[in-house]
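Hi, here's the filled form for the chain we discussed.

Project: internal
Contact: R.S.
Residues: 141
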Amino acid sequence: MIRRSIFVVALGLQAAAAAAQTATPATAPTQPAPIASASARPGITLEKFEARREKTFMRADTDGDGKVSLAEWTAFQTQRKAKGDPARSFARMDANKDGFVDKSELDAFLAKRFARLDKNGDGVMSAEERPGHKTAPNQEQ
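And the returned structure, exactly as it came back:
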């Protein structure tokens, strides 16, 4: 009787092993999605922020010398019907106070502004952080 029980158990183990080999493999545990880089997240990166503002700013360079004078800036702001005093905004950008704003001064100014607007410091300005967004706090631009 013992022999017969051992034989039945052995057959059962052999059948279980065969069934395991033919069964469909269990699905592997799902891997978490990789964390998206700053450039893949929705929002505006510093590079995009600078590129957009620089393109607009350089339209004020009417003589094409690669820098903007106070006279050019004032005329540009008047044409755009911009709010605020153009001399005051120009003075904030003209870091070396030479009467011109060049690309390096503009980039430095924009980097500071971006850092101030990027409230959570993640390197991406979300819609909520952008000035003028319905959920953004009212602030001077």
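Let me know if anything looks off before we file it.
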